[in-house]
Amino acid sequence: MASPLQLKLQALSDEYQNLNKELQETVLARQKLEAQKQENISVQNEFEKLKDDEQIFKLVGPVLLKQDKMDAENTVKGRLEFISKEITRLEGVIKETQGKIEKKRTEIIQVQTSAQAGGAPQAVKA
C-alpha cells in the first residue's frame, strides 16, 4: 500500500505532466497562428503590388467569387489584427502556465526532500 507521501508525490507528478501537456498544446496553437499571420502578411504584400483596377477573386468552397480590392484588403487587415491579439493572449497563457509548472516543480522537490529526510511534507507558500 502506498504511503500518503507517495500518493501526494504521484498526484503532484500527474498535475505537472498535465501542465506540460497544456503548455505544449498552447505553444502549438501559437505556432499555427504565427504561420497564419505570415500567410496573411504575404497576401497583404501582394495587394500592394496590384493596380486598383485589377480583379481579385476569393475562393469560397469550390467557387471563385469576385471581390472588391478594398473589401479584400480590409478582410486581411481584420484577420491580421485578430491573429495578433490571439498571439498576445496565448503568450500570456504560456507565461502563466510556465509559472504554474515552476511552482509545481518546486512543490515536487520539497515533497521529495521531505520524504528523503523522513519527515512530513512542508507547506508550500503560494
From TrEMBL:
Coiled coil: 2-53
One of the GO BP terms on file: protein folding
GO molecular function, one term: protein-folding chaperone binding
UniProt keyword annotations, A-Z: Chaperone, Coiled coil
GO cellular component: cytoplasm; prefoldin complex
PANTHER family, per the entry: PREFOLDIN SUBUNIT 6
Family designation: Belongs to the prefoldin subunit beta family.
Name of the protein: Prefoldin
Provenance organism: Neurospora hispaniola
Lineage start: Eukaryota, Fungi, Dikarya, Ascomycota, Pezizomycotina
